[in-house]
Amino acid sequence: MADQEDLPEGTVQNILDQESLKWVFVGGKGGVGKTTCSSILSILLARVRSSVLIISTDPAHNLSDAFQQRFTKSPTLVNGFTNLYAMEVDPTVEHEEMGGSEGMDSLVSDLANSIPGIDEAMSFAEMLKLVQTMDYSVIVFDTAPTGHTLRLLQFPSTLEKGLAKMMSLKNKFGGLFTQMTRMLGVGDEFGEDAILGRLEGMKDVIEQVNKQFKDPDMTTFVCVCIPEFLSLYETERLVQELTKFEIDTHNIIINQMLNPKLLKARMKMQKKYLDQFYMLYDDFHITKLPLLPEEVTGVEALKAFSRHFVSPVSTTS
Q1: Which one of 58, 119, 142, 248 is the catalytic residue?
Q2: Is 271 annotated as a binding residue?
Q3: H-helix or E-strand containing 180?
Q4: Residue 96 pLDDT > 50
Q5: Which of 85, 146, 233, 302 has its CA 20 to 30 A from that of 133?
Q6: What is the predicted pLDDT for the residue at 289?
Q7: Cα(21)–Cα(125) distance, rounded to whole angstroms?
Q8: Which residue has the higher pLDDT, 19 or 115?
Q9: Can you tell me where the transmembrane regions are (predicted)?
Q10: Bridge partner residues of 296 (DSSP)
Q11: What are residue 222's DSSP bridge partners?
């Protein structure tokens, strides 16, 4: 195997050069800097594309913090740009917010809650339907931590299973559901066929997009990580899952690399914020933990590190 020094340095230029790309997913373990990387990637793409939309599907929604601008579920032009838009969506948003008939949405939402995972899948389908109507050259997804990302890629099969379950219920109970809705004075637009039609429509949209997701000319996944064991492990799991779902991935961004020249500047910055912590929380017990040259893994290492929880750490030198 080649040494690290022998390997050519990689960049994201290949993504910027691939003009056919429509969807760019950015994902990885929590806390590795996905939002920063996806935001920068969207800025770089805005230089070479006519229009770019960056969407945060992470419930934490750090996109507003990254750009220091408030974003909502509607695309908003990023300050200082003419062709870069951003929006933050909650994959578990209630269906009443999705528009359409209120009664229908409420009924679909109630039914969806009885099928594990389908509520999130339907919300994502609605969001994709909205995005499909927009004319953006490329769309960047700032995804939630790995587990949520993998669920997002499973949505088409989740919807399919949900529809199959609802069809089996329809066959089992015959016209009982329709009779009940009529007894309650509800029109045909809330009948089983209307609801199944609504779900079928969402399924069509998400299946159409899913085909694009599996097309390497249109979609790629950028893995963000840090040079530590847990992040390496998570990245490997993510790459294997993406391969299983036939999602193209050939870019890895390794974040938080140390630079000795920046150490003093970093210490100066930390000192400024430490002073603020002590000023704001003067009645708290503040425990400082040092950054170590090695990872804290294994019982013995954890025991050794535990001394810093009961002995003050010096911030000088």
Answers
A1: 58
A2: no
A3: helix 176-183
A4: no
A5: 146
A6: 83
A7: 20
A8: 19
A9: none
A10: none
A11: 26, 251
